[in-house]
Write a structure and sequence with these properties.
Blueprint lengths: L40 H9 L3 H12 L3 H14 L7 E7 L5 H16 L3 E7 L25 E7 L11 H10 L4 E5 L8 H4 L4 E7 L11 H6 L2 E5 L6 H15 L12 E4 L8 H18 L1 H27 L2 H15 L5 H19 L1
Parallel strand pairs: 1-4, 1-5, 2-3, 2-4, 5-6, 6-7
């Protein structure tokens, strides 16, 4: 910086130039020194079995990755963790938006950790934008106490357009969490209404949260999701809302009598509670553990787990076929052509789809 005060016209006045400011970046710092080390499958498995949450988080990110080069490594990690999984209570939690799913998980989780001990993993699925494909992933912010508990692991994941309110890789994440020693797993869905088949096919107990006083409680009685629920709880049963909550619970109990008896033989119960004040939490956990004892005694627990494994085999086949189809080079080139022909009215959607499938299968035969 130039100082005009140092000019000869100003006698007896001198201002020093000062010291040059150092760079904000350390010149001795080498970025390669802090580069994250690439982990092998054995590194991932060893860290997971030790309960290292950092390694577990990296493994979940690996499993959720859509990059083809990550797929084989992720499958190897899952396969090696599989013998150490299956020893947990898997609980799916769903409900309409605003029912208090995240707040309820906070109080449910703290109660069971204090009363039963063990470790708890929460897999919170956040809806993804159809426009930007992004997610806020803000569920963890509403689990203030559970998020800082040393025995809990909370993992928000984007739904990425998956139906059923769960992420595509939630099933594999459950296996990793169980291998890490988490004996209680919560799967929180986005609350999408009746498309809950996916979460129902990966949990042992399906808990449906409802609220009263919204204007029409009967709107909450949707046959598809009600038939899947193993337990229904009415949240916000406090203050002036107690009478409305009890009335809503009576409506749900009456509605359940209209449905056929579940395959488990268990009669779903309807309870009321207050997540904000922590009232009725013990009764909900008593219901869950009663259900677990009931289905383990009559053999339905093992049967359902086996049926779920079969279901996810077919889901994996469908997903792999879909991915392989769209990643095919010939299909990628022809898709734009067919899209233009459909938009210009030169071809129907059905004929275009059939021709693309014929091209895909012909390419497979030629490669053989």
């Amino acid at each position: 910086m130039e100082h005009p005060e140092n000019d000869d016209m100003y006698k007896g006045l001198v201002v020093n130039a000062g010291i040059a400011q150092p760079s904000s970046v350390n010149p001795y710092l080498k970025s390669s020194k802090f580069k994250r080390r690439e982990l092998t499958a054995n590194d991932y498995v060893e860290g997971i079995l030790k309960g290292d949450t950092v390694i577990l988080s990296r493994a979940v990110t690996l499993v959720e990755s859509v990059l083809p080069e990550h797929h084989s490594l992720a499958q190897e990690v899952i396969e090696k963790c599989l013998p150490y999984s299956g020893n947990s209570i898997r609980i799916g939690i769903s409900g309409v938006p605003g029912a208090g799913k995240s707040t309820s998980i906070d109080v449910f989780g703290l109660h069971v950790l204090e009363e039963k001990g063990g470790k708890l993993a929460v897999l919170a699925i956040d809806p993804s934008s159809e426009r930007t494909k992004g997610s806020i992933l803000g569920d963890k912010t509403r689990m203030e106490k559970l998020s800082v508990h040393p025995k809990s692991f909370i993992r928000p994941s984007p739904s990425a357009g998956s139906l059923g309110g769960v992420a595509r890789k939630t099933r594999e994440t459950i296996v990793l969490c169980e291998a890490a020693g988490y004996d209680k797993i919560f799967v929180e869905t986005v609350g999408v209404g009746q498309s809950e088949t996916a979460v129902h096919s990966m949990v042992d107990f399906f808990l449906l949260l409802q609220v009263a006083g919204t204007g029409d409680e009967l709107q909450g009685i949707k046959r598809g999701i009600m038939e899947m629920a193993d337990g229904i709880v009415i949240n916000k049963c406090d203050g002036d809302n107690i009478d409305r909550s009890n009335l809503a619970a009576a409506h749900f109990r009456n509605a359940l009598h209209l449905f056929p008896v579940p395959d488990s033989g268990w009669t779903p119960k309807v309870l009321t509670y207050s997540g904000f004040y922590g009232l009725g939490i013990k009764e909900i956990w008593d219901m869950i553990y009663s259900y677990m004892d009931f289905v383990k005694e009559n053999g339905y627990f093992e049967y359902r787990r086996n049926e779920q494994n079969k279901y996810w085999m077919y889901e994996t086949i469908n997903e792999q076929l879909r991915s392989n189809f769209y990643n095919n080079e010939l299909i990628a080139k022809m898709l734009k052509v067919k899209e233009k022909m459909i938009q210009e009215g030169q071809q129907t959607s059905f004929i275009a789809a059939k021709q693309l499938l014929d091209i895909y299968f012909s390419d497979i035969v030629e490669k053989k």
